[in-house]
Fold this protein.
Amino acid sequence: MAVITAALVKELRERTGAGMLDCKKALESHDGDIEKSIDYLREKGIAKAVKKAGRIAAEGLIFDEATPDHKKAVILEFNSETDFVAKNEEFKEFGKKLVKIALERNVHKLDLLIISHFDSDHSGGAKYILENMEVDTIVISEQFRYSKQYIEMMKAVIRNRKNRNNIKVLYLENGKTLKCGKYFWIKVYGPIKKYINKNILNNNSLVFLATVGKKKILYTGDIEKIAEEQIIKRIEGIEIDYLKVAHHGSKSSTTDIFLNNINCKNFIISCRYK
């Protein structure tokens, strides 16, 4: 039986657009033969047409809505592939409904603020949130308690009168669980230990599995190879619907070993918009 490597899975995924787990199963079923695997995926309706990869949603409309007192407004750009779709009445009505919903929600309070670690691109907005919004609970890794960044965060809490006396700060360790509401709860899988190497912030990121209704999402912060290897056995066998890829898809994270040992179909990469 052929050895199914991460490189082979990646090649099949790039050629078909199918999910990583589907590609792996197809290769295993066809002894590593990539052409037979492609045919199999196409027959099952999983593979995407190559021409779709180049499609751009360059058409569409812009919708706007404001409150009667003009103190709040929402602008929404809603795109489509063709102007034919954009001119459709159903498309227009859907866009109008979206801006109304966005305006009506008027979010001014957060039940839960989870900070994976204190790199600016992961926690830079926390200061503004804590100074301007009411927050019920903050969750951070136990490893960051009493750190310099933690102290700065608490100063922001104190500056907001609404948060000063009511906010709760939870320091979650490996294995801890937290339920928030009826349909949302998290379980912490890392850090397993305190890392003291040069990438202390990254590898001490809070790693947790969030269950939202029936969906499971694994958040990995910016952990790198050494931290990934520590959590593999703890998440083995868990069916994960979405993986938030560590460190924005950096080559120092999401190794072949990690990908080959997790059961996940969809992958999300956060990156800077250009």
